[in-house]
Design brief:
InterPro entries: Cyt_P450, Cyt_P450_CS, Cyt_P450_E_grp-I, Cyt_P450_sf
Membrane topology: Single-pass membrane protein
CATH superfamily: Cytochrome P450
CATH topology: Cytochrome p450
Pathway: Plant hormone biosynthesis; gibberellin biosynthesis; Hormone biosynthesis
Subcellular location: Membrane
Keywords: Heme, Iron, Membrane, Metal-binding, Monooxygenase, Oxidoreductase, Transmembrane, Transmembrane helix
Largest sheet: 5 strands, mixed
Helix content: 40-55%
Number of strands: 12
Strand content: 5-15%
CATH architecture: Orthogonal Bundle
């Protein structure tokens, strides 16, 4: 009898929680679909989906998926519940949102600047900066992009950086090979940070670099977090890191301004000089806030993505010996065909690395470093037959586009050869975004990765401490142990 009563009580409790869950989610859905929209928008055709729980929305489901071994389960659950529509309403990062997972929908949101603007979460805008590319208007972005793109792109700039990047890679690999163990990802990020520091600040000060790199690590954990400014939360720690970064950059800008004041006709040696001297058609210069936010954004984006992708390309090649040998053979052929009086790599040789380029593209696709990009509807917009109300966020889920089996058969397999006879259709391959806000440093990132892999393939191998180290997917995909292991030099 007691056992029967216990079961009855348990069923009552479970039933109570099921009802409460249904009531709370129904109220939340009504609040955003009816009360918040109001007027004639109540009858607009919204995408399928739900708004999750009050306040947290669908964030719990998202986090559970990305804390698991299958981050794609978040989207696959939407597909199972609402069908392969490719457009789903939700409540994400504190805002009513529409998640899009198809190339067509991504193209619309990325290219229609009249209908969409950047819509990054509050945490991202506050941490990266309200005067950085993630927040500014189309007109402001166009101006700043024109100013800053030239030093990180183009044949002349990349040719100039090739020698410097090569020197860093050669010396770093030699140094690593003499060490017992390294965290490969951590050290790789330091390498790419040193390169971007040189380009933007002409600085290689170990003290400054270590301070900046340390704060950037903390900053990145808060960029995709909920904006909860309470001790213990990632956003709270990240805000403190941003304050320290701003203080460091302010000191650098002040010192450079004083130096240029003493020599106003001196040559511009890096991005800081370019930003300090820039004037618009009315003679107005950039404010310190604009300069600092641009620097903070570029230095962050310029080392995080290339550092991670270089690590993953190295790991994936070693995991697949047939691809490793093919990539290595290409590098050996480049060295073999080199003129007798040429000792080092040239930019033109990098451009001839056809197979290695496929390796990098396949790594970019499989890893999808920026798995989601945010936009916001500037007005009511029709997308794939559904209405996106003004002010709603649009989350472009690049990860789903890159994992579409119709475009990429066996999408979870690493296979550089899939690119042999394939030119991806527009907006089916977006490792650097798309539209007017395409990442301006994409060519520089590929150059860094190519030079590192050239020397690694020819002369080194990585021996991991734990090949089975679990993968962490937030804020970016990485082995939990940061790829702990040893770099060994290979005898020719």
């Amino acid at each position: 009898m007691d056992l029967k009563c216990d079961w009855n009580a348990l069923l009552v409790i479970l039933g109570f929680f099921v009802v409460i869950k249904w009531v709370l989610k129904s109220i939340n859905l009504w609040y955003y679909e009816n009360y918040k929209l109001g007027g004639d928008k109540k009858n607009c055709k919204l995408p399928p989906g739900d708004m999750g729980w009050p306040l947290i929305g669908n964030m719990w489901s998202f986090l559970l998926a990305f804390w698991s071994t299958n981050p794609d389960s978040f989207i696959s659950t939407l597909v199972t519940r609402y069908g392969p529509k490719g457009v789903y309403k939700s409540l994400m990062f504190g805002s009513p949102s529409v998640i899009v997972t198809t190339p067509e929908a991504c193209k619309k949101a990325l290219t229609d600047d009249e209908a969409f603007k950047p819509g990054w979460p509050k945490s991202t805008m506050e941490l990266i900066g309200r005067k950085s590319f993630v927040s500014i208007t189309y007109e402001e972005h166009k101006r700043l992009r024109k100013i800053t793109a030239a030093p990180v792109n183009g044949h002349e700039a990349l040719s100039m950086y090739t020698k410097y990047i090569e020197q860093i890679v050669i010396s770093t690999l030699e140094k690593w090979s003499s060490m017992v163990k390294i965290e490969f990802l951590t050290e790789m990020r330091r390498v790419t940070f040193k390169i971007i520091m040189y380009i933007f600040l002409s600085s290689e000060s170990e003290h400054v670099m270590e301070a900046l790199e340390r704060e950037y690590t903390t900053l990145n954990y808060g960029v995709r977090a909920m904006a909860i400014n309470i001790p213990g939360f990632a956003y709270y720690k990240a805000l403190k890191a941003r304050k320290k970064l701003v203080a460091i950059f302010q000191t650098l800008v002040d010192e450079r301004r004083n130096r240029r004041g003493k020599n106003p006709t001196g040559a511009k040696i890096d991005m800081v000089d370019i930003l300090l001297d820039e004037e618009d058609e009315n003679g107005k210069k950039l404010t310190d806030e604009e300069i600092i936010d641009v620097l903070l954004m570029y230095l962050n984006a310029g080392h995080e993505s290339s550092g991670h992708i270089t690590m993953w390309a190295t790991l994936l090649l070693q995991k697949h010996p047939e691809f490793f040998q093919k990539a290595k053979a290409e590098q050996e052929e480049i060295v073999k065909n080199r003129p007798p009086n040429q000792e080092r790599l040239t930019f033109n040789e990098v451009r001839k690395m056809e197979y290695l380029s496929k390796v990098i593209d396949e790594t970019l696709r499989l890893v999808t470093f920026s798995f989601v990009v945010f936009r916001e509807a500037k007005r009511d917009v029709t997308l794939c037959g559904y209405t996106i109300p003004k002010g709603w966020k649009v989350l472009l889920w690049f990860r789903s586009v890159h994992m579409d089996p119709e475009t990429y058969p066996s999408p979870k397999e690493f296979n550089p050869s899939r690119w042999d006879d394939m030119t991806p259709k527009a907006f089916t391959f977006m490792p650097f975004g798309g539209g007017s806000r395409l990442c301006p440093g994409n060519d520089l990132a590929k150059l860094e990765i190519s030079i590192f892999l050239h020397y690694f393939l020819l002369n080194y191998k990585l021996e991991r401490e734990n090949d089975e180290s679990p993968i962490i997917y937030i804020p970016h995909s990485r082995p939990k142990d940061n790829c702990l292991g040893r770099i060994r030099r290979v005898t020719p």
